[in-house]
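Apologies for my clumsy wording, but can you show me some protein sequence, whichever is easiest, together with the matching structure tokens, please?
=====
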Amino acid sequence: MNNQAAPPSEAFYEGVIRRMQHAIVAAGVVVIAVAAFGFGVAPAIGAALGAALSWHNFRWLAKAVNSLGERITTGHSRERGGLVVLRFTARILLMGVGAYAIFK
């Protein structure tokens, strides 16, 4: 008798990005509520801004990875290769600017 579980289906993997976005929203709502009731309005606004940026950053990263993966594997991407690389580079530069601003 084989005790191994069946591998997850393609439908499971196709829904991962959507489930992760929902998890980011749910975590954001919890953090905003804790910040609002525990610390006040200003921290809640900061938490809301952070949650919104996190969600947007995740969407941007998922889109970039999908575009790059499609470009590499099939070559039938609707986007030009230079544009994909430019978006990746811009994302890294923006993260660097954000990190600099936080630590400064």
About this structure: The two ends are 61 Å apart (CA to CA). Residues 15-103 form one domain. The mean pLDDT is 83. The CA atoms of residues 47 and 90 lie 24 Å apart.
